[in-house]
Design brief:
- The chain has 133 residues and is mainly alpha-helical.
- The chain folds into two domains: 26-94, no CATH class; 97-133, no CATH class.
- The chain has seven helices and two strands, in the order ααααββααα.
- The chain has a two-stranded antiparallel ribbon with strand order 1-2.
- It is flat, with a radius of gyration of 24 Å.
Length: 133
C-alpha cells in the first residue's frame, strides 16, 4: 500500500511539472483564421433562455450581446461567416418598466455586491423590504 501511494504521488508530481509548460510562443492575433471546407454563411440558433442571453432574472441587451450564440457567430464571422441578426430588447434595464421609468430592477444581486453587502441570500430569505428598502 505504501508503494502504491508513493508511486502515485511521484507520477502526479511528474505530470504536474511537465504540464506547466506554456505554448504561447505566438500571439493569437497572428493566427490566420480559415474556414477550411466548412460553410459558415448561415447560422441559426434555436434554444431556451440560456440561448437568448437571459440572466439576472431578466432579458436585456447586455445579456443578449454576451449570449453564446452571439459569441459563436462572432467567431464564425472571422472564418468568413455572414452577419448574425439577433432581435434585441428595447432597453438595458432588465426590470419592470412603466412609461420609460424603472419600477423595479432585477439586478439587485449584483448591486448588493457593488455596494459592499454580501448577505443577499440570508437577507432575502427573511424579508426583501428589510434589506433593500
Amino acid at each position: 500500500m505504501k508503494k502504491i501511494i508513493i508511486s502515485t504521488f511521484a507520477i502526479s508530481a511528474l505530470l504536474f511539472t511537465t504540464s506547466c509548460e506554456d505554448d504561447f510562443d505566438k500571439d493569437v492575433q497572428d493566427i490566420v483564421v480559415t474556414s477550411g471546407e466548412a460553410n459558415f454563411k448561415n447560422y441559426v440558433s434555436i434554444g431556451n433562455s440560456l440561448t437568448s442571453g437571459y440572466r439576472d432574472n431578466a432579458l436585456y441587451i447586455d445579456g443578449q450581446n454576451e449570449s453564446y450564440p452571439n459569441i459563436i457567430a462572432g467567431q464564425m464571422k472571422l472564418a468568413g461567416g455572414g452577419n448574425f441578426v439577433q432581435p434585441l430588447m428595447a432597453d438595458n434595464n432588465g426590470g419592470l418598466v412603466l412609461l420609460g421609468n424603472t419600477i423595479q430592477s432585477t439586478k439587485l444581486y449584483i448591486k448588493s455586491f457593488t455596494n459592499g453587502f454580501s448577505g443577499y441570500y440570508k437577507c432575502c430569505r427573511n424579508s426583501y423590504y428589510k434589506c433593500f428598502n
